[in-house]
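Data availability (excerpt). The following record was deposited with the supplementary files.
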Amino acid sequence: MRALSSSVGAVAGAVALIVLLGSPPATTNATAPSEATNIESPAPLAKAQTRFLSSTGVSRALGNLRAPLETGVLAESPADAAQIPVYGVPHEFYFSRVAYSGYGGFYGRGGSWQTDFPKADQIFLSFIDRLLPNLDAYLSEFVVLLDEPDLRRFPFLYALEVGSMSLSPPEIEGLRSYLLQGGFLVIDDFWGTQQWAQFEYEIQQVLPEYEIVDLPLDHNVFTTFYEIDEVIQVPNVGNGTRGGPTYERDGFIPMVRGIHDEKGRLMVIINWNTDLGDAWEWADDPYYPFEYSKYAYEMGVNFIVYAMSH
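Predicted structure:
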């Protein structure tokens, strides 16, 4: 399994997670939805037409380095460093982490979008490669910008620490267009009433006419692949390995909320007062409780299958 720790205990924990979660039936195809058979597949990405932020771009951008990148693009500034073309044959699924503006600027204090990056993404994808073997997934970290014109080519976006998110007008317009054209956004790892208020303000700039609702456990996002019968509060790795507490700030109760379009399709799923990303990242750590990783991976798989089938 890619990107996993080489320690015996870590490998044992990773194997246990795969075994207990269970691999899907051979006939399972997460990308062949009955509801989406008439949707036109996006055209292949054109060379030099996209500007998605690679891991190389992230590291150099954050360091504000003026140096040639591996792609041959010269990083004149943090903004330029993010504009790196992606070449090759596109995959059908990318774990697309959203790089958004926040308080303190894109790379300052507001750079909370990069929390747990890239390890959480890499570990998560190493498990997804086993749990959804029929999925043609790009098995490396992948970062996108919300004002990217080709954002709709990617059916799944992941954004975390949104309590410090402060979107620019182009980001608001880009995310709105993406969601209304069939995109799916997963929100994770923000806690308490203050961070909720900030996120709620931002998402209402994007989708002002759509209501945020609590998702009942009979919603099909909880049953697309695994049967989820309980919302579990997933703690950060420090609290998890210490045995608690599971909450942060005044976020005592975990909640899963969502925003649907006029046809009932879930556009945004909001995991509040929980940290699925840490459970993904530390699934190979024998000291991180298995129950949290198991739940987080079951939820993650369900998110992917829902995104690819709606």
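Summary of structural features: The first strand starts at residue 93 and ends at 99.
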